[in-house]
Amino acid sequence: MPKDKKKSAPVLEKVIDFGKQLFATVLRSRKGSLTELSRLLRFQGGTKGFEREYNRLVPLTNELKVAFRKSLLDQLPKDGLRLGLIDDTSIKKTGKNFPKQQKHHDHNNDTFYSGMKVLSCGLYQKGKVAIVSSEIVGKDDNKLEVAKHGVDKLVTDFMVDIFLFDSWYCKSPLIDHIQDKKKLFISRLRCDTKAEFGEELERLDALAEGLLHSEYKHVKIKGKSYWIIELTMHLKALGTLRVIISKEGQHEKPIFLVTNVYNFSAKFIVSLYLRRFAIEVFFKDAKQYLNFETFMCRKSQKWDLHLHLIQILHWVIQKKKSISKTVRDIRENIDKCLLFINQSELVMKFFGELRKICLT
Asked: How far apart are CA 321 and CA 178, in angstroms?
C-alpha cells in the first residue's frame, strides 16, 4: 500500500465508524436524532466536532454508491427476472431553504403543499427490492429525463430485464428510450388514453364499457381473482402495442396495462406489474421508519448522502416486504440501533467494499 494511503487509513476508519453511527440515527427516525448522536459521541454543545466528522463523510458519497453497487451485485440472485422500478414521492417541508423546494398539488384532496419531490429508481428480484438512486427534482428538472438516466443506470450497472412504472411515466420519450436499449417495459395507461380504430379515436375507458364481462378471462394471482382481456392496439401517442385490460370484479373499474412483451401470458404480465408496488412500500417504510422526511439539512450534498444512506439501510434490513417489524423493535433506543448496525453482516460487507475502493 502506498505511503500516502497508509496515512489515510486511520482517517478512513474514523469516517466508516461515523457512517455506522449515522445509520443508527436513520433507524432512530426522530427529528432530534442527530443531536442525540452528537451527545452520544460527547461533542459538546457549540463545538464543530460533529460537523467536522460529517464533512469527512460527504465527499465519499460517490464511493458509497460504488461500494453499494458492488455489494448489491454480490448479493443478488444469479437467476430470475430482474425488474426495474421507477417512481417518485413527495417530502413535505415548510420554509424556503430546502433543495428545490416548491409548491406541489395534492391530487387526492385538491390542495397545495410546500415540499420536495424525490424520484427513485430501483430493482426487484425474487421478493426483494433495492433502491439504487434517488434524486430531488424541481420545477427546472424534466422528470422524464431524470427517469431516462435512471434507466441507463439500471441497464448498465444492474442488467435489468423489464421496467415497471405507472401512468405518469408512460410517455413516448421514456418508452422510446427503453426500447432503444432493447429492453422491455410494462406500464399502466391513463383511462383517457386514445386508441385508433380505423379513422376514429376512442378513449380506453369508453372501449371497456362496450366489453361484456363474459369476454374477460378469469385468472388467480396469489389467490386473488382478476378478470383480464388482451388486445393489440394502435395508441395515438405510443404506436402499436399490447394492451391488457384487468379488473378485480365484474362491476369494478378496469385498469389498462401496456407492454412490448409478447412472449409472456397476460396473467404473467399482470403479476409482474403488481411487483411495481414494491417501490411504494419502500417510500412508506422510508417515511415511517428511516428518517426520510424528518431530515432537516438544507444542503443538497447532504441530502444526496442522506437519501443514499436510506437506500443502503433499507436493503440490509429487509427480508421480504416491509421492514417495519424489525425497525419497531429497536428504533426507540439509539443504543439498540447501534448494536443492530454493528451486528449486521450486510453492513459489514458494504463497509468492506468501501475500504477496498478508498484504499486502492
From this structure: 27
Please give the distance of CA 116 from its chain centroid, rounded to a whole number: 15
Mean pLDDT for the stretch of residues 74-81: 91
Rounded-to-integer distance, Cα 37 and Cα 50, Å? 9
Q: Is 273 helix (H, G, I), strand (E, B) or coil?
A: helix
Rounded CA gap, 48 and 33, in Å? 17
3-state secondary structure of 276: coil
pLDDT tens digit sequence for 239-291: 999 999 999 988 899 999 999 999 999 999 999 999 999 999 999 999 999 98
The three-class DSSP label of residue 114 is: strand
pTM of the complete model:
0.91
CB 20 within 8 A of CB 342: yes
pLDDT score for 48:
74
Angle (deg, nearest 10), helices 277-289 and 300-317? 110
Compute the distance between CA of residue 27 and CA of residue 317 in angstroms, rounded to an integer: 10
> How far is residue 189's CA from residue 255's CA, in Å, rounded to a whole number?
8
Instruction: Report the first-to-last Cα separation within the chain, whole angstroms.
Output: 8
Cell of 272: 409482474
| pLDDT at 1 (0 to 100) | 40
Residue that is written with C-alpha cell 422524464 in the block: 144
Tens of pLDDT, residues 304-349: 999 999 999 999 998 777 788 889 888 888 888 989 999 999 999 9
- Give dist(CA 338, CA 345) in Å, integer: 14
Cell of 24: 443508527
The three three-digit cell numbers of residue 215, written as one number: 369476454
Residue 350 burial (CB count, 10 A):
24
Over its C-alpha atoms, the chain yields an Rg (Å, rounded) of: 23
Count of residues making up the chain: 360
Closest CA to 289 of 329, 260, 256: 329
Cα 59 to Cα 94: distance, rounded to the nearest angstrom: 28
